[in-house]
Write a structure and sequence with these properties.
Layout: H1 2-18, H2 47-58, H3 76-88, H4 98-110, H5 113-124, E1 130-133, E2 149-153, E3 156-167, E4 174-180, E5 191-197, E6 203-208, E7 217-228, E8 232-233, H6 239-259, H7 272-281, H8 291-319, H9 327-350, H10 364-379, H11 386-397
Parallel strand pairs: 1-4
Antiparallel strand pairs: 2-3, 3-7, 4-5, 5-8, 6-7
The structure holds flavin-adenine dinucleotide (FAD).
Flavin-adenine dinucleotide binds near residues 133, 140 and 387.
């Protein structure tokens, strides 16, 4: 594969020469860390802005998306090499967010040409930040029961209703929302998938606090919001198919983000959990004396490595254009349950120091660890609960009867 070898060498040389020093080795917190772009984008450190701009120019924020919409047009093998080189140099993704991980791939599959040309380049350049308007007070697991209404008025819909748990709704510019366009039809058949600019009059957002102390999500209200009918993705009343396809991308993204996060900044090479145990339980750096704990750490590490190999296969398939199916439920449930186990074990190892909320008795890392543990509780709820994923796996993967 001389072409690929040349591509790797060229990519590595470019990254070595151009990636800002300040961002090398930067650990990105999955809870909102990194560049999310948008009209009110913030960059921490400020060199992340330069990093974003230089990657946008090369199409490297969406390496395998078509060039005509601002992507890199790389083959799956080239995109994989780029990802490997970024990892090798410990460089953070230039851009992240629901535009790239959820609505972008969905637009590429279901959008008409006008919609793709309007939205994909703005996602790729990080100009617009997206959020997801699926859940409602009475429609979570039973999503198809959603009640947000959209009635037609000329060439517009008029949207009314309330969405809950809208992650980053207060920071986002556009929302992709499921709305009921035919209240008479069977519930799945009366739903449309609508793209809404959140600056439209009548959209309001109120943050809701999480158990971890942060407020990454919101209640989003629509009071007679006028949305052009041309913003429907997948046809009027055709939203359920689009919604399910997007959930496949969302579940893979959650598995990828939370399944791959070690839950702490490694102070030295090797297992984060084993190092933590050495730090809190055994100062001399030898083998851990508690065999049960050793066993638990080893099991967690082995499951983690096996999962990393599996998710790597799923990333390769996605680069090759594979549309996620029911198997995304497997990834989602496994990764999030693993993250819960891992964060819980970390807190147990740290003992009383693992339960810090604030105050001088705890260092920054300890406080972060507590919050990661609490945040992980939401992992098995967001994107569809673990019970719902198990139902999908039983029915659609294993073919078990209802
Ligand atoms: C951190 C976080 C971020 C989120 N971000 C977003 C977002 O950006 N946009 C958005 O639209 N939504 C978001 N959500 C909402 C999320 O999708 C819903 O919370 C989820 O789908 C569950 O719905 P619910 O909360 O109404 O729980 P319910 O559906 O009321 O479920 C309650 C319990 O009953 C169980 N249950 C329900 N039905 C069944 C069944 N058929 N079989 C077995 N058990 C069942 C569930 O597993 C759960 O344990 C987020 C949630 C969290 C925690």
């Amino acid at each position: 594969m001389p072409d690929l070898d040349a591509f790797r060498a060229e990519t590595a040389a470019w990254l070595e020469a151009h990636a800002p020093q300040a961002i090398r080795g930067l650990l990105i917190n999955p809870e909102g860390g990194g560049n999310w772009g948008g009209r009110r984008a913030s960059f921490d450190p400020s060199e992340m802005k330069d990093w974003l701009e230089m990657c946008v120019e090369r199409g490297w924020t969406a390496p395998s998306w078509p060039r005509e919409y601002g992507g890199g047009g790389l083959s799956p093998a080239e995109a994989k090499i780029l990802a490997e080189e970024l990892r090798r140099l410990k460089l953070p993704a230039p851009l992240t967010g629901f535009g790239l991980t959820m609505i972008g791939p969905t637009l590429l599959r279901f959008g008409n040409e006008e919609q793709k040309r309007e939205h994909i380049p703005r996602i790729v350049r990080g100009e617009i930040r997206w959020c997801q308007g699926y859940s409602e007070p009475d429609a979570g697991s039973d999503l198809a029961s959603l009640q947000t209404r959209a009635r037609t008025d000329g060439d517009h819909f008029v949207v009314s209703g309330t969405k809950v748990w809208t992650s980053y709704g207060d920071l986002s510019d556009w929302i992709f929302a499921l709305v009921r366009t035919d209240p008479e039809a069977k519930k799945q058949e009366g739903i449309s998938f609508l793209l809404i600019d959140m600056e439209t009059p009548g959209v309001s957002v109120r943050p809701i606090k999480l158990i971890s102390g942060k407020s990454p999500f919101c209640e989003t209200r629509f009071d007679d919001v006028r949305v052009p009918i041309r913003n429907v993705l997948g046809g009027i009343n055709g939203g359920w198919t689009v919604a399910k396809a997007l959930l496949g991308h969302e579940r893979n993204m959650i598995a990828d983000v939370f399944g791959s996060f070690s839950g702490g900044r490694p102070k030295r090479p090797g297992s984060v959990l084993a190092n933590l145990a050495r730090e809190y339980l055994d100062g001399d750096g030898g083998a851990l004396p508690d065999p049960v704990l050793r066993d638990e750490i080893a099991a967690c590490e082995m499951d983690d490595r096996a999962f990393q190999l599996t998710i790597q296969r799923s990333r390769d398939a996605a680069r090759a254009g594979h549309q996620p199916g029911a198997e995304s439920s497997l990834f989602k449930v496994y990764a999030t349950e693993l993250n819960k186990r891992r964060t819980e074990l970390a807190v147990r190892i740290a003992g009383p120091q693992g339960l810090g909320w604030e105050g001088a008795g705890f260092d920054e890392e300890e406080l972060t660890r507590t919050r990661h543990w609490l945040r992980a509780r939401g992992n098995s709820i967001e994107g569809g609960t673990s019970e719902i994923q198990l139902n999908i796996i039983a029915k659609r993967v294993l073919g078990l009867p209802d």
